[in-house]
Specification:
Layout: H1 6-27, H2 35-50, H3 58-80, H4 95-103, H5 123-139, H6 148-178, H7 195-202, H8 205-227, H9 233-256, H10 263-287, H11 295-323, H12 326-350
Helix pairs in contact: 1-2, 1-4, 2-3, 3-8, 3-9, 5-6, 8-9, 9-10, 10-11
């Protein structure tokens, strides 16, 4: 179960976050951008690396670690040099919006009135995923009768559903508080037709958007001078996956507090190398005018892409996840929440009118 003091610690952590980001907002008004700005926000970045250690639950601690140690810190690095979403000046960000954009996975839609834009999700879409997640939780009661590989497949969908639904709740909260229409964080990754499509346009898009200006674009600029514009994307892609590997190792340390075995690093390094090969082949095929398009080819590409991601996850991703006992601890937290809801409902039912 979630420790009794976890909610109290969670409150203290996020109160510290609000105070720290208020400092960053205020200091930016009087501090020049560049290394001086970086020197001023560096203590906050170090604090945000420490704060997730105050939490031990999978859901509260895991999401806090992801938001603070990764997204917020990378945004603050950009902000120190006058770049990124926190440096918006048209219109200037108010303090509440600055804090929200700093610590939450937010990217405002450029055309919020367009409901037909790619990736927009309907309430029915989320309702179906809620039902599927509930069905998955029930299926785990029969783990003794399921093949271990099938359980890992269920875990894959479980992680996707939890991430997307959690981020959707964040979007709904921001929409209610600030009236902002946000871009979706996932675009049906199980329909990806290539690794480039999966990692670049469908899976956890907020991470993609924050890694692009902090890692990919600087390395791309340097590589273009060294190897030319045609092949510059290759080292830029690989560098991005290396940084992603390091951040995932950090997040997994927050989850399990166990010594890293570097399997997560191998997962992202391998995918980075495979994506480099895919991009190189596309460049060669483009020169040869090789274009094959058909519905059958698209289906086969999707099956190969999703199958490749899942199989490599079985090799390197899930062993680390299970070593942290995240599955057992997550189910204990679900049970604790379910028991609380039942007790609360029972208290309402039998309370005197």
């Amino acid at each position: 179960m979630v420790p009794a003091g976890e909610v109290f610690n969670f409150t203290k952590v996020w109160l510290s976050v609000f105070i720290s980001l208020s400092y960053c907002y205020a200091i930016s008004k009087v501090t020049p951008k560049g290394f001086t700005g970086l020197f001023c926000v560096l203590p906050i970045i170090c604090l945000f690396l420490f704060l997730p250690l105050k939490l031990s639950s999978i859901h509260l601690g895991g999401m806090t670690a992801f938001f603070l140690a990764w997204l917020t810190n990378f945004k603050l690095l950009l902000f120190a040099f006058g770049k990124g979403p926190l440096s918006s000046s048209n219109p200037p960000l108010s303090l509440p919006r600055f804090i929200a954009m700093a610590c939450l996975p937010i990217k405002i839609q450029q055309n919020p009135l367009s409901k037909s834009r790619k990736g927009h999700k309907s309430p029915l879409n989320y309702a179906i995923k809620c039902l599927l997640l509930a069905a998955l939780l029930q299926a785990y009661n029969y783990n003794n009768y399921l093949h271990p590989k099938l359980i890992l497949v269920l875990y894959s969908f479980h992680i996707f559903f939890v991430l997307e639904l959690t981020l959707a709740m964040v979007q709904a909260l921001v929409r209610a508080l600030f009236g902002l229409e946000l871009e979706p964080q996932f675009d049906e990754p199980y329909l990806a037709t290539s690794l480039q499509d999966f990692w670049g346009r469908r899976w956890n898009l907020m991470v993609t958007r924050i890694l692009r200006p902090t890692v990919h674009e600087p390395v791309l600029y340097i590589s273009a001078r060294a190897v030319g514009r045609k092949w510059a994307p290759l080292p830029a892609v690989f560098s991005t996956f290396l940084v992603s590997a390091a951040m995932h190792e950090l997040i997994f340390y927050y989850l399990g507090r166990v010594r890293p075995t570097w399997e997560i690093t191998w997962f992202f390094v391998f995918h980075g190398m495979c994506l480099m090969a895919e991009i190189a082949l596309k460049k060669v095929w483009a020169n040869q005018n090789i274009m094959i398009k058909s519905r059958l080819i698209t289906v086969l590409r999707t099956m190969l892409t999703v199958g490749f991601v899942m199989v490599t996850s079985f090799w390197w991703f899930f062993p680390t996840l299970l070593r942290c006992n995240t599955d057992v601890r997550a189910f204990e937290e679900y049970a604790a929440v379910g028991a609380f809801v039942k007790d609360f409902g029972r208290a309402l039912t039998f309370s005197p009118s």
